[in-house]
Amino acid sequence: MRSSLLLLLLIGLLPYLNGQSPLTVFERSKGLETATYEEGIAYYQKLSQAYAQKAQLQPFGLTDSGKPLHLFTISSDGDFDFDNIHAKGKLVLLINNAIHPGEPDGVEASMMLARELLSKPKAYSAFLDQVVVAIIPFYSIGGVLNRNSHTRANQNGPVSYGFRGNGRHYDLNRDFIKADTRNARSFTEIFHAVDPEVFIDTHTSNGADYQYTLTIIPTQKDKLGGPLGEYLDQKMMPFLFDYMANSPYEMTPYVNSLGRTPDAKGITDFLESPRYSTGYAALFHCIGFMPETHMLKPFKKRVESTYTFMQGIVKILIRDAADIVNRKKESKALVAKQKDFPLQWKRDTATYKLIDFKGYTATTTTSAISGLPRLKYDRQQPFTKQIPYYNHYIPTSSVERPKAYLISQAWHTVIDRLRENGVSMQRLHADTTIEVTVYYLDDFKTRTRPYEGHYMHYQTKVRAEKKAVSFRAGDWLIPTTQWTNRFIIEILEPEGPDSFFSWNYFDSILQQKEHFSSYVFEDKALEWLEEMPALKADLEKRKKEDPKFAKNGRAQLDFIYKRTPHYEKEHLRYPVFRIE
Fold it and tell me: SS3 of 199, please?
């Protein structure tokens, strides 16, 4: 029996042992089909068996589908310990696929890239001597398993594909910072184990029609900032644009149009917040890319363009891997000492550059369905025009880094997320009272429609006060002298657009837990007004200034109640405290 199994294994590996390159589902179908989950994992299993000294496929945490994420690693010297890899000064490239399983271009491109790197070691020796490649074959596994041929109504192939939502109907490219899904928490484990310098998350875009097969969203240079932001803007992106221009697949920035069409008012950088994969990666000083192939181009060309982009990354890393590694180390050191951290950004409308853009002429025709005007792109009328490209963002609000944050152990979900993201924390050993800066929520708005499982808060305004607050043994102190500061401040400062307050982690403090009965509190209120003349003066002033308030007895009692010790101190008090 054992001999039969060995024979079957050897037969399966014959193409590899004979030096032949095994074909993917995409290649066998002449560019019409993409691999199923089972076919994709089986392909990587065969590669890991055939090249066991250089390649490893390992399960890495569950997803909402019940199946694990897998990580396929190529390490030319056979060392798969990422601590060792970084100690050797090697760069780690992480590639994530099928975050939106209806967009499988990267699934196929990654399989081909893995095969080429392993089967042609001499051709790639200059790359593999410096770089370890880690590939997540399928991220939204539940979406991959939900296979169909219709949900991508605007897309030109493949024959069948997965669904955008995962097993719990989440769009996983909105879940990185909030981590509602098992997928995101397992990705967090992978990301911090790998600690990549460069990250690629493969996609297919909707939107305008134009001549390009592939557009690119790099990490927004200003948000990335520091040595890595400068390198990305001044060296890496110019190289990649030139490389793609000299291939069959010239590339342009992601077509995020400011007008009805790209040539109307130009295009702007996509400002990715950390709910998105590349925005999350940037918090940890990692250069991220979202290659976005165009939905209307044939699947074959989309895969080929994604593969070509990956080859461009290979070329630039051969040249600059050591520089990028050093810049990440420098960025980590700098952020541990950085004083001010931006929370909100806006596009600089005064700064742009003109780029050549290859589009199609937009026309307006009459809809045969509604009889109303409709937009149509005429592919018989291509053009090349110079259009403005806005890629500069400026901070609109910043916060000064405190010495540390304090949070009660009661908020264990938040503490878990901090720990999972590599944040160093210390527990208080005894009950103590500490003078801290306390935030009170003065104002915020809440979305009226659900978004990825949440009714998000926005336009948050806080009031800061210095107070002595009692803490218990076991509560958590979070120093801000660490390289994870960007993540710490992004989630803990409530005015941030992707803060944990914005994502409803602290909503229980928004509800008042104790109240009063008017007929009982009326007599107590009189006593308080006698004891507190200033309160009585404030009440009379408010009645004069606000006629509606003057006619509302309950509102007047509430005004008094909230200024006495009866009012709970935790209501609207943000439960994360700053040590200045």
Answer: strand
Q: Does residue 6 surpass a pLDDT of 60? A: no
| Whether residue 9 has pLDDT greater than 90 | no
CA distance readout (Å), 211 to 296, 353, 358: 10, 20, 6
How many angstroms separate the CA atoms of 318 and 190, rounded?
24
Residue (of 152, 140, 196) closest to 293 by Cα position: 152
| Distances from the Cα of 429 to the Cα of 81, 572, 580, angstroms | 35, 28, 21
Give the number of other Cβ atoms within 10 Å of residue 416's Cβ. 12
Overall pTM surpassing 0.85 (yes/no): yes
Q: Return the sign of the alpha-carbon dihedral for residues 245, 247, 250, 251.
A: negative
d(CA 233, CA 221): 6
Cis upstream peptide for 158 (omega within 30°): yes
Round to whole Å and give the CA distance between 362 and 360.
6
User: What is the pairing mode between strands 203-205 and 287-294?
Assistant: parallel
Which domains can be identified in the chain, with CATH numbers? 21-335 (3.40.630.10), 401-580 (no CATH)
pLDDT 10s digits, 28-52:
999 999 999 999 999 999 999 999 9
Q: 307: closest CA among 217, 247, 220?
A: 247
Query: Residues in the chain, how many?
Result: 580
**Burial (CB count <10 Å: 0-12, 13-18, 19+), residue 277:** buried
**Rounded CA gap, 399 and 132, in Å?**
37
